[in-house]
Design a protein that fits this description.
Layout lengths: L2 E5 L1 H11 L9 H10 L4 E5 L9 H10 L3 E6 L3 H10 L3 E4 L19 H13 L3 E6 L3 H10 L3 E5 L1 H9 L3 H17 L3 E5 L7 H4 L5 E6 L1 H10 L1 H12 L5
Parallel strand pairs: 1-2, 1-8, 2-3, 3-4, 4-5, 5-6, 6-7, 7-8
Helix pairs in contact: 2-3, 2-11, 5-6, 7-8, 10-11
Bound molecules: pyridoxine-5'-phosphate (PXP).
The site of pyridoxine-5'-phosphate has 19 residues, from strand 8 and helix 10.
Length: about 250
């Protein structure tokens, strides 16, 4: 069964727009996480950014305490956040690139260019009992490097696919990259997640990508939740994912 990890960052984005620096406020990303679990989500994803633009430290500690499914902490490979992760002990970390100006995570990690540093973080996390995923483009060189770090998972970046779907140009090519990336990763013994830009319209196409374990989806679910509520938005996404056969 294809699993859904719900990324609740954008619930915190709305809260911070009004309550930045005040240690409280609505909407509450932890409440959104609990609603997602109640609707059947298999995991909760939160990105503790170095600039703390949405998720705050108190959110990840509260999530660790109350959620019953898996906590996936998205994070940059930076010393400060590594120390927090080693204390927090999420079930899994997903290492992502982070640039201050981006609206969200724009590109995949350059694993090949940062092999030693990423391997070291992978080792420290695994020693602490935390699994590791690397967020990468469906690029053969990066997938090969991801396997060399010893990571358990990759998360294939579906952003280019989502953009091509929206533009109705080059969709088949982008899907072919995801398919061959998933096949290569599977051959190398990596488990394969995917995410970024997935929504209720493009999701059915993702069924053509083999070997997927989990999708991490945030923006489209939180956006729909504004209109129909978090539980309904998560259930709608799970319904679209159910026919996946790997
Ligand atoms: N996966 C990763 C690694 C991400 O950085 C993001 C965006 O925060 C997502 C998945 C979710 O993307 P979206 O919000 O577009 O669904």
């Amino acid at each position: 069964m294809l699993k859904l990890g719900v990324n609740i960052d954008h619930v915190a984005t709305v809260r911070e727009a009004r309550y930045r620096g005040r240690g409280r406020g609505e909407p509450d990303p932890v409440a959104a996480a609990l609603a997602s679990e109640a609707a059947g989500a298999h995991g909760i994803t939160a990105h503790l950014r170095e600039d703390r633009r949405h998720i705050q430290d108190r959110d990840v500690w509260k999530l660790r305490e109350v959620i019953k499914t898996r906590l996936n902490l998205e994070m940059a490979n930076s010393a400060e956040i590594i120390e927090i992760a080693l204390k927090l002990r999420p079930d899994i970390v997903c290492l992502v690139p982070e640039r201050r100006q981006e609206v969200t995570t724009e590109g995949g990690l350059d694993v090949a260019g940062n092999l030693a540093a990423l391997t070291e973080t992978r080792r420290r996390m695994n020693d602490a009992g935390v699994e590791v995923s690397l967020f990468i483009a469906p690029d053969p060189e990066q997938i090969e490097a991801a396997a060399r770090t010893g990571a358990q998972f990759i998360e294939l970046h579906t952003g280019s696919f989502a953009e091509s779907f929206a533009a109705q140009a080059g969709v088949e090519e982008e899907l072919a990259r995801l398919v061959s990336g998933a096949e290569q990763a599977h051959r190398l013994g990596l488990r394969v997640n995917a995410g970024h830009g997935l929504n209720y319209d493009n999701l059915p196409w993702i069924h053509r990508v083999p070997h997927l374990v989990e999708l991490n989806i945030g923006h489209s679910i939180v956006s729909r939740a504004v209109m129909v509520g978090m539980e309904a938005a998560v259930r709608d996404m799970l319904r679209l994912m159910a026919p996946y056969r790997g």
